Amino acid sequence: MGQITPNGPSARRGGLLYTGNDWNFQVIRDCYDAIEEIARTELGLETYANRIEIITSEQMLDVYTAHGMPLGYKHWSFGKRFIGHENAYRRGLMGLAYEVVINSDPCISYLMEENSATMQALVIAHAAFGHNHFFRNNRLFREWTDPSEILGYLEFARGYIARCEERHGLRAVERILDAAHALQNQGVHRHSGARKLDLKAEQQRARDRRAYEDSMFNDLWRTLPTEDAPGGDHRAEDALSRRRLGLPEENLLYFLEKHAPRLASWEREIIRIVRMVAQYFYPQPQVKMMNEGCATWVHAYIMRRLHELGRIDDAAYLEVIHSTSNVITQLGFDAGGGPSFNPYALGYAMMTDIARICTEPTAEDRTWFPDIAGNGDAIGTLRHAWAEYRDESFIQQFLSPKTIRDFRMFRLRDDTSQPYLLVDAIHDEAGYRDIRRSVALTYDPGTFYTEIEIVDVDLLGDRTLVLEHRSRAGQLLQPNDARQTLNYLSTLWGYGVILKEIDTQTGAVLTTHTANVPT
Amino acid sequence: MDIIDRRPNPHGKNIENRRRVLQRARSAVQQAVRDSVARGKIREIGQGNAVSVPSDALHEPTFHRVFTDGMREIVLTGNKEFSRGDKLQRPQGGAGQGAGGDGQAGENGGGEDSFRFVLSRDEFLDLFFDDLELPDLVKREIATTESGTPSRTGLSNEGSPSHLDLGRTMRRSIARRIGLGRPKPDDLRAVEARIAELEDQRPLGADALDELETLREQRGTILRRLARIPWVDPVDLRYRRYTVLPQPATRAVMFCIMDVSGSMTERMKDLAKQFFLLLHVFLERRYKKVEIVFIRHAESAEEVDEDVFFHDPRTGGTIVSSALELMSGIQRERYPSGTWNIYVAQASDGDNASSDTQRTASLLQDAILPVVQYYAYIEITGSGAVIRGETDLWRSYRAIADHNPHLAIRHVGDRKEIFPVFRDLFSRQHDTAEA
């Protein structure tokens, strides 16, 4: 790790915060204060107010299940996740995370009661300061999430869905939830210019909408003669109605909520809830590596400082080193590491590397990173990166030759027309840029979300909804899942649905999936 | 910063969601339960209670891409020996399918082919009985009554003096006395001693006179309170309450008799097994110890273990009396009717050598029915469910059942009939006419 000089007055000196493994509330409070001092004065972290909650391991399993959210509506899929975690935990396949932290204001960190005093301190540094700072400052979270309202909104969602279950029956609600869940990855607005979620206004609007619809409902309207102009210009009308429907539309849930003809208003509201939650979690996977890297780097820094300041003893510091290195282990490809990076490992390595480049640059660093090499402000540089980048752009910008060498990265070209896999870049001068581009690409949201759009509706005919998936040959949708998901879509739409997979380059239709009118 | 201790909060937030999973996967779980019943031994059912259901029962589909062919680039870590241009053998199964398959790799931490539930025994039995359309097993009581024994069930404020719970009563008495401010006898004694002391001194100063006056007043109050607030009041009294609970007899033996001649198909045996299993679970809830004796017969009868009973085919003619004789013999030798509750369940397709039926009937009537609690005969009809003529065996059993209420006979043709028949057999009204 690079040598970093504290940029604030060094923390007030005090004795040991605790000895041994046991913690009590006073110990946690003292640790928090000592950690906060370092986080604020030396690292300049800005966080939401913190709330620390102590829970049991069983409760931790519950928290895991609901996206780490403290309250959620009822649905069998959460039960499934719970049983999965429970089985893995019981059979010892999975340890529980020491902590779960959620992006809310106040920021809630869950600490398990089984943790030792050192682990509690580490977790506070990691979650209550590292993650919390990241949530508060990263551009994606600032743009997309409204942490002061999320807890209230989830409370509303749970209550709303429970009331729907009472009024319309479990099965009717489950039908909508199942379908909406299947489409939740297609339920977000991805492009900028979208406004930040205002969840409180959201709840109010939901109520207003209900009230308005109730007041406007007049059965007489249905009996009015329609202006039917037979033989009119269907094409022009079609184009007009397509525009009115806002097509093409990539947010399938949004479209269904607004335009699906057969849904009751409570069904639209449930779709909306699923969509809002999906939107809320939309940034998380795009910054996971940075977020974990930031939190890990912060806890490593703070715990080291606590040790230097004589606030924790050698035994405690050894425990810190031990558990930190457990977390940041990157298995090689031949040890079951697979093609994915451990976000903790890569994130921590890159943070450490940036700090090093700022303070002790080599000649190589000066050519690769002329703007930050040797600037002497490691912490400021990191803070800037945490605020302004997401994983893809962060890697594109900061993955250094040294890190590539440290991980001994290499690139395989998998061409199915060849009988072999080709090693086409390794960690050498010629390979750095290729490898960096490929790694960045795997973090590109464009590669982990599928691009599916609603392009047309046959409004004058049988109301079939037409979707397109833009892809390439050999990269089509998993057909069984696509068919089942399409059935769900058709459940919500109320009429038939067609999904065409289009070759982005040639425009050829590669394959077509259909779902018929649900009965 | 707030620290909140959430440990005392309600646990098990996901119990409802878990229940919904079971509901969702009900048919699959039921199938798994049914399979494990078919595989398992009667007495172990529901003990090792993990079932696996295929994961597609709980599959959550999404739109996601799979890489099937074409070209892609993968960055891996931990290179030890490769240089640019090296060619590697494709891993088994093709890297194409495996790695590229999941667009959201790492989400679920490994693929699952099946989903494993650990069911509690109750959940297991619920699912199992639900399959048999069992609404409520426990409330059904076998017609035979048994002696009850009184058992402690909490406290009551009335009862006989011999049941007085002194500890509880005194505890309440103390609480009431403290609450109402009943003076202690020691207080009275102290006041009286002081009064006596003062009275002994003369002459008394003005102070002492005042004190004496106050003390006398105090004594008056104390005496009044002592008289008004009793040491033990009727409201303090607590009696131990006893309720007579039916005392299950401790031991029961269940004879399973099955015709295994060639005419009994696997399906029929399966139905019989379901029936025996129900009976076992039922008895197990009533008795501490239930023994099972398996007797199979064709031309001759033998006692066998469960595996052989259900899985070893035999051929040949059928002589039912041989099984009844054997059963009767085993019963006399090992399970004297004085100390054992004896149940017999017989499953058969009704085939019997015509010469044997008379002998079977007399054995049943004279030797067996007098010592058993209950004898259930189910005749399993062919899958075609064509109403056949009554078999000889059925006719003779029915004649006996007419004046022996603890012999019950029913037809079973299909899995879903098992439970209704079972409930019918073990409900109180044995006198309902057989359809």
From TrEMBL, chain B:
Location of region: Disordered: 80-113, 143-165
Comp. bias regions, Polar residues: 144-160
InterPro entries reported in the protein's UniProt record: UPF0229
Biased composition range(s): Gly residues: 93-112
Classification via NCBIfam families: PRK05325.1-2 (NF003707), PRK05325.1-3 (NF003708)
Family the UniProt entry places it in: Belongs to the UPF0229 family.
Protein name from the UniProt record: UPF0229 protein AAC691_02190
Native organism: Nguyenibacter vanlangensis
